[in-house]
Write a structure and sequence with these properties.
- Helix content is about 75%, strand content about 0%.
- It has helices spanning about 1-15, 20-35, 40-55, 60-75, 80-90, 100-110.
- Helix 3 (about 40-55) runs antiparallel to helix 4 (about 60-75) and helix 4 runs antiparallel to helix 5 (about 80-90).
- The termini are far apart.
Amino acid sequence: NTLERALAQFAELRDAYPGTATAWTADESIARALLRLGRNDEAVAKLAALPDQYPRDPRNPLALLQAAGIAAERLHDRQRAAELLDQLSGRYPRSPLAEKAKQEAVRMRGQ
């Protein structure tokens, strides 16, 4: 399968450049491939782990937002989505996405 081969190639790329922006991009690409394979839980986990794996990468708020969207839309797990949005707004309060994440988390919880 082409996507399975892509997963392996992205993992090799990540491993060749550990801790770099290239590795972050490879891991994010792995998440996208997992999503296309229908492995939604794994995609959410991969995206949610990026901030811990690459704490200085400025794209982390977007990764958390993407993970929350997948959790809500594909997994129908509004609680998990709200938790990811809380993580975004808590870890990245200065992000342009933080305020919207707070509002969306409240909406997800039905408050």
